[in-house]
Amino acid sequence: MCPPAPTESSAPRENVSLAPFNTLALPGRAGRYARVTADGQLVAFVGDRRRFVLGGGSNLVLTGDFDGLVLHMAIPGRTLAGEDAEAWYARAGAGENWHDFVQWTLARGWPGLENLSLIPGTAGAAPIQNIGAYGLEVGERFHSLAAVDMRSGKTVDFDRAACRFGYRDSVFKREGWHLTGRFVVTGVTFRLPKRWQPVADYADLAGELAERGIARPDARQIADAVIAVRRRKLPDPARLPNAGSFFQNPRVDAGTASRLRTAFPDLPLYPQPDGRVKLAAGWLIERAGWKGRDLGPAGMYEKQALTLVNRGGATGVDVIALMRAVQRDVRARFGVDLTPEPVFL
Ligand code: NAP
User: How far apart are CA 308 and CA 242, in angstroms?
Assistant: First the structure.
């Protein structure tokens, strides 16, 4: 533990619109807003009580104005932090765009993150919810991260065990630190194995590779296939504002899964190592009648029912009304509770 070297602070601005900084394009203003481009700038904000750490704003529902301090993480940097016989260790500043960082590692010839191409957001946010896609979670490629403890101003390193990764979960979420801004992630190091194996079993990915006539894909080919599948299914926030998957995929006990399968024979079930069974939230939402359906200016996307979109002019109130309506109908039809994935501010 050591304090980061103090650097010139980016002075906070007052009453700043956050609409450009959230991918749902919801309105809301920050009482104070600072763009953080170097670790040392954080020291100036130790002791600030109401604070929110903003990355790419792709997992955020703004419910209105926020009267605290928003720290917008924009620390840059991509480096090879080390290499040994087993792996390359690639480091990203917390503000690096996640997709661009993944493409950079692939261009350098370091495979391992290809399945996570095109997930929106920043590198610093990736470990917080242990982002994952197409059978790979970032925790599997994670080495360590550096964070500033906003109580003491000291830099703390978290290794893989300390992050306590779970399904779209980590110690940062479990302890609520992502809401209170207790630890601000400044950089993340990934361990990219030299003995690489493709992960390409998911139906969408396997189908795309088969269509391209690729039987033994390399990492670049997997990335290209993932990008193609995602572009087809998921809306580009620049054209249709959204926050990616809006609900977590629920996990239920085996008895509940079996009862549901009896009532709904085509319900997809994914047994988990812990004995529970994962359900596809998108399937439940579609069968509850919400795929492509709107409530006011917000709706559930027509090509992917799990994505909530802002059709134009929606506010946080509209998003919450739609979220509750979808939750209510899924509960009524399946008896399953859907938990939203984004953070509400
Ligand atoms: P999809 O491929 O249509 O799959 C729907 C659901 O089925 C997901 O819950 C997925 O689990 C599960 N599933 C499918 N094939 C599976 C298999 N072979 N083994 C175990 N589970 C399987 O999902 P999608 O909505 O189009 O999204 C594509 C991928 O991007 C998914 O992996 C999704 O989780 C991921 N994604 C991640 C984030 C995030 O990290 N925040 C946001 C958006 C999408 P999983 O969800 O466990 O993969």
Answer: 6
Paired strand residues for 83: 88
Instruction: Specify the residue with its C-alpha closest to ligand 1, atom 44.
Output: 245
Mean pLDDT of 26-33: 98
Is 6 a residue whose pLDDT tops 70?
Answer: no
> Residues near ligand 1 with C-beta < 6 Å?
119, 129, 131-134, 168, 201-204, 233, 244-245, 249, 270, 280, 282, 304, 306
The reported pTM is: 0.93
**The pLDDT of residue 311 is above 90:** yes
- For residue 173, the tally of other CB atoms under 10 A from its CB is 17
Closest protein CA for atom 21 of ligand 1? 270
- Which phi and psi angles does 57 have, rounded to 5°? 65, 25
Per the annotation, the verdict on 245 as an active-site residue is yes
Burial of 75 (0-12, 13-18, 19+ CB in 10 A): buried
Catalytic residue among 35, 160, 168, 182: 168
- Tell me the mean pLDDT in the region 121-145: 97
- pLDDT at site 334: 97
How large a percentage of the chain has pLDDT more than 90? 94
Question: Which H or E run includes 214?
Answer: none
CA distance 129 to 106: 23
Q: How far apart are CA 198 and CA 267, in angstroms?
A: 28
Residues 236-249: pLDDT tens digits? Answer: 999 999 999 999 99
Q: For residues 93 and 96, what is the distance between their CA atoms, to the nearest angstrom? A: 6
Q: Is the pLDDT of residue 2 over 50?
A: no
| Per-residue pLDDT at 260 | 97
- Smallest CA-to-CA distance from 325 within 294, 301, 304 is with 294
User: Which of 119, 234, 245, 339 to probe ligand 1 with, by most ligand atoms within 8 A of CB?
Assistant: 245
- Give the residue from 233, 250, 247, 236 showing the smallest Cα distance to 322: 247
